[in-house]
Design a protein that fits this description.
- Helix 3 (105-122) crosses helix 4 (135-144), helix 5 runs antiparallel to helix 6 (186-193) and helix 5 (165-182) crosses helix 7 (207-216).
- The chain is built from 13 helices and 9 strands.
- Helix content is 41%, strand content 17%.
- Strand 8 (276-281), helix 11 and strand 9 form a beta-alpha-beta unit.
- The chain is globular and about 60 Å long.
- The chain has 2 domains: 26-164 and 222-332, Rossmann fold (3-Layer(aba) Sandwich); 165-220, no CATH class.
- The longest helix has 23 residues, at 2-24.
- Residues 1-24 have low confidence and may be disordered.
- Strands 1, 2, 3, 4, 5, 6, 7, 8 and 9 form a 9-stranded mixed beta sheet that branches.
- By secondary structure, it is of the alpha/beta class.
- Residues 52-317 form the Serine aminopeptidase S33 domain.
Length: 333
């Protein structure tokens, strides 16, 4: 009998300890929302600390990439804030019958408007911050310079993304030329010199040749698929499917050949009033750091700061994960 009494007392102590521990844990959200708009069924997964009343909406790159597959790197942020992972139309785990004619900046911006509106309906007291990467930065500039959309947002974190097709390709070629000279690659130097980038020829210049040389010269040697833990997470803990991921790009021929070449928001950045933080991997050849430095110069009417990651290329959240998340956390807080 004494043994049984001791056992019950021990169990009671454990239950009290567990109960006390639970009281210290921040309430967390795990909700899946859906936005159906113009043929696209787009999921938005919301995870994280509901007490924070802060939401970071991740605008993924691509176009045609995925959001939740990068939760592997951002998950730690969910202890301090909510993170909303949105798969854009014809991207990640989104579905529906989407007319390829809707794959335009205006439409992506309109989709973003309704995603933000949906989040505000679900979390009326929360502030929303955009965390945009690569193509997501183009989407962010389109969204923030349209109507009064920036009034819905408390801040922008822009990661290695462009504001102007011309200035982007100009700096990619400059980056590749510098590397060709450093590496004594005469063929690369010859072909790059034969393909100058000017504001007049952006509609016709051979961007693919420039882009290929940039990659060959080490513009972004980091591969997600070298990380076995990431691969396991991608396969078993992400709603995105590899089949969808590698077929989405076929829908974007018009974007690559026409739409993106017309992208120019430089003159409108003076209208941005919300705080901006620019995150840049300084080794990046895909969107060189000079693009980020020009972006900062154009943001003349808001508070803007820059965090440069010296050991990173196009995805600093992959190569310097802790430093990146700390920078996000400090901006949002």
């Amino acid at each position: 009998m004494k043994t049984i009494n001791k056992l019950f007392k021990s169990l009671a102590v454990i239950l009290i300890l567990v109960s006390c521990k639970d009281q210290d844990v921040e309430p967390t959200e795990q909700k899946t929302l859906f936005l159906r708009h113009k043929g696209a069924d787009m999921p938005v997964w919301v995870h994280g600390n509901t007490n924070s009343n802060k939401i970071v909406l991740y605008l993924h790159g691509g176009p045609g990439d995925c959001a939740m597959c990068y939760r592997y790197y951002f998950k730690e942020l969910e202890n301090d804030m909510m993170v909303a992972y949105w798969d854009q139309r014809v991207a990640g785990a989104s579905s529906g019958k989407v007319d390829s004619g809707t794959l335009r900046y205006d439409q992506f911006s309109e989709d973003a408007f309704y995603v933000v509106k949906l989040l505000k309906q679900q979390y009326p007291n929360a502030q929303i911050y955009l965390l945009a990467h690569s193509f997501g930065v183009e989407l962010a500039w389109q969204f923030l310079t349209t109507n009064n959309n920036q009034q819905m947002i408390s801040g922008l974190m822009a990661v290695n993304g462009m504001f102007s097709y011309y200035r982007w390709l100009y700096h990619v070629r400059e980056w590749a030329l510098r590397e060709a000279k450093k590496q004594n690659n005469a063929e690369a130097e010859r072909e790059l010199l034969a393909n100058p980038v000017t504001i007049e020829n952006t509609a016709t210049v051979n961007w693919e040749l420039i882009y290929r040389w940039m990659y060959k010269l080490g513009g972004n040697p980091v591969s997600l698929y070298d990380d076995k833990k990431y691969l396991a997470n991608y396969a078993f803990a992400s709603p995105n499917t590899a089949l969808a991921q590698f077929t989405h790009s076929k829908a974007y021929s018009y974007y690559g050949e026409v739409e993106s070449r017309l992208f120019e928001k430089g003159a409108l950045l003076k209208n941005i009033r919300i705080p901006v933080r620019l995150f840049w991997g300084v080794k990046d050849g895909i969107v060189p750091v000079e693009v980020g430095r020009e972006t900062k110069q154009l943001l003349t009417n808001t508070s803007v700061s820059t965090v440069e990651f010296s050991q990173s290329w196009h995805e600093p959240f992959i190569t310097e994960t802790q430093e990146f998340n700390n920078a996000v956390r400090s901006f949002v807080k």
